[in-house]
Amino acid sequence: MPFPWYKKSKPPDPDEAESAFIGQGTVLSGKVVSTKPLIVDGTIHGNVDCSTTIIVGETGVIIGELRSPVARINGRVFGNIHAPRNVALLGQANIQGDIFTGSLHVEPSVIFNGRCHIPQNVSSITKEEVEKAATGAA
Fold first, then answer.
1. What pLDDT is recorded for position 19?
2. Cα separations (Å) of 31 from 27, 57, 66, 115, 137?
3. Separation CA 101–CA 82 (nearest Å)
4. Which of 48, 56, 106, 137 makes the best surface tag, with the fewest CB within 10 Å?
5. Exposed e or buried b for every residue in 89-116, given b needs 16+ CB within 10 A?
6. Is residue 4 a part of any domain in this protein?
7. Which tens digit of pLDDT belongs to each residue from 85-115?
8. For residue 32, is it within any domain?
9. Does residue 9 lie within any of the structural domains?
10. Domain total of the chain
11. Structural domain that includes position 58
């Protein structure tokens, strides 16, 4: 049965969905805006604005700017990433662009060609502080 809600009195309310999903094999062109968490396993040619969290899966591709408070990337992004809270580059992620974030996690297998911009008010550690911590000096 392709539409399990068919026998119900009305179709499901899209506002009750927990996340938006762009599946593998789907190609979208143009700006994408989501107020729900967004999972991308397909391809988007255009800018993406998500007001919560964006997850780019292994088969996901974004060709354009990405804006979201939190970004989890395991696919490919060709464009700048603006995620003020956190960016995690995971697995086979391939990023070709700059990252603007408050916190960055990068796994060793990731390809990242660009610059990372982390505001000084997030964390500012001087070379002397690093040396003191390494030697155990107070």
1. 85
2. 12, 19, 10, 24, 52
3. 6
4. 137
5. bbeebbbebebbbeebebeeebebeeee
6. no
7. 999 999 999 999 999 999 999 999 999 999 9
8. yes
9. no
10. 1
11. 19-135
Residue 11 scores a pLDDT above 60: no
Q: What is the DSSP letter of 128?
A: H
Is residue 107 a part of any domain in this protein? yes
Judge contact between 85 and 68, C-beta under 8 A: no
Query: Does 12 have pLDDT greater than 60?
Result: no
> Quick one: which H or E segment has residue 127?
helix 127-135
Residue type for 22, please? I
Phi first, then psi: what are they for 129, rounded to 5°?
-65, -40
Give this prediction's pTM.
0.75
Taking a C-beta distance cutoff of 8 angstroms, is the pair 75, 90 a contact?
A: no
DSSP 13: P
pLDDT tens by residue, 57-80: 999 999 999 999 999 999 999 999
